[in-house]
């Protein structure tokens, strides 16, 4: 059997792809989709000069530079703060990759891949621009008042989906390998 393959009784002895490959694929797809969407919005649509772009009555594309972490927490534009955030993000990605390599369930492994891909995507933004590119704004108007959600990007969606799926897997799924 080749690397990354295992035999499984249910497959009648045929090789079965490792969950880790699925996790890596989820990370790569997430990273590509995230970076492609941001590059398209910044350089093709030129969202900086055309925002807001109404997509639906409840979704606009806008440009927001987030020098902090999730939900704009710990915002700081100093180079030292940006380097510290990149170091923390790199350490988190390494820890998540180790956890993913030890994971035994498909759901947990793919979930970790989504989180890793999203973290790397936002890390690339921080390195390239000094802040994370956010662009999706959900909003609703009720009784003449507009209520907005946080502005976010595809990496954020992948991270939230990955965390939600990990929580589901930890409660409902097969007991997973503990995080490092």
Tally of contiguous helical segments: 5
Placed side by side, the strands forming the largest sheet appear as 3-4-5-6
Oligomer: single chain
Strand fraction: 15-25%
Structural class: alpha+beta
Distance between the termini: 28 Å
Count of the separate structural domains: 1
In total, how many beta strands?
6
Question: Averaged pLDDT, please?
Answer: 85
Could you state the order of secondary-structure elements as H and E? EEHHEEHHEEH
Structural write-up:
With 180 residues, this protein is α+β, with helices and mostly antiparallel strands. It has one domain. The chain has five helices and six strands; from the N terminus they run ββααββααββα. The protein has helices at 19-44, 47-50, 79-102, 106-129, 154-172; strands at 5-7, 15-17, 53-56, 59-66, 132-142, 145-148. Strand 1 (5-7) and strand 2 (15-17) form a beta hairpin. Helix 1 runs parallel beside helix 4 (106-129) and helix 3 (79-102) runs antiparallel to helix 4.
Please outline what is shown here.
By secondary structure, the protein is an alpha+beta fold. The chain is built from five helices and six strands.
């Amino acid at each position: 059997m080749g690397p990354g393959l295992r035999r499984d009784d249910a497959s009648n002895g045929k090789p079965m792809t490792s969950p880790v490959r699925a996790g890596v694929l989820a990370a790569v797809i997430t990273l590509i989709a995230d970076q492609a969407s941001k590059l398209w919005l910044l350089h093709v649509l030129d969202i900086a000069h055309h925002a807001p772009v109404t997509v639906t009555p409840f979704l606009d594309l806008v440009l927001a530079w987030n020098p902090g972490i999730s939900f704009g927490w710990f915002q700081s534009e100093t180079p030292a703060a940006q380097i510290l955030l990149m170091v923390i993000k790199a350490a988190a990605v390494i820890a998540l990759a180790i956890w993913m390599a030890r994971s035994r369930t498909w759901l947990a492994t793919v979930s970790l891949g989504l989180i890793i891909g999203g973290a790397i995507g936002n890390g690339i933004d921080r390195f390239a621009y000094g802040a994370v590119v956010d662009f999706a704004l959900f909003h609703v108007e009720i009784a003449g008042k507009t209520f907005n959600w946080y502005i976010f990007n595809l990496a954020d969606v992948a991270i939230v989906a990955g965390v939600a799926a990990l929580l589901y897997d930890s409660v409902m799924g097969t007991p997973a390998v503990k995080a490092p």
